[in-house]
Amino acid sequence: MYRQRIYPQLKMPNHKIEGRDRTFAYIRNLNFSQLVADGKTIFLMNATNADHFTGKVRVPVGTTTYSAVVLNRYLVAEPNPMRVVVDQKGVLNLDFAVQQGGVVVLNAIPTLPAQLGARLGDGESEP
User: Fold this and answer.
1) Which one in 14, 19, 55, 119 has a CA-CA gap of 20 to 30 Å to 48?
2) Residue 52 resides in a domain
3) Do the domain assignments include residue 60?
4) pLDDT at 124 exceeding the cut of 70
């Protein structure tokens, strides 16, 4: 005799691997407050059941802008890379259309010291 058993849905955690200057995150669910990434290059793989990715990524201090390239499930880049600005709390607020199995590749754009607030005021000299 065959009996059907219903098991509760298992929580599928997100996974993150940190390397020298790279962070790879395998996102299975979007129920997270934020992902902390130490890498200057961040790979976010969409392993969810949706074709849309929203989330927050805390990035290393001193980086103000990232370029974002979306790769489809065949790892072919979508046209028109974007720029994402880090907010005042050091977080990237992401909202992308990304196919299931696709990847968002975020690359830190080097920040000039003047852009970090080290710029001298008009006509002022360094003490």
Assistant:
1) 19
2) yes
3) yes
4) no
Mean pLDDT value across residues 78-84: 93
In a domain, 121, yes or no: no
Number of domains in the chain: 1
Assessment of whether the complete model's pTM goes beyond 0.85 = no
pLDDT digits (tens, 9 = 90+) for 94-104: 999 999 999 99
Please give the structure tokens belonging to residue 44. Answer: 């976010």
Taking the C-alpha atoms of residue 8 and residue 38, their distance in angstroms, rounded to an integer, is 35
The rounded distance, in Å, linking the Cα atoms of 60 and 109 is 12
DSSP code per residue over the chain: -----PPPPPP---EEEE-SSEEEEEES-S--S-EE---SEEEEEE-SSSSEEEEEEE--TT--EEEEEEE-TT-PBPSS-EEEE--TTSEEEEEEE--TT-EEEEEEPP--GGGGTTPPPTT----
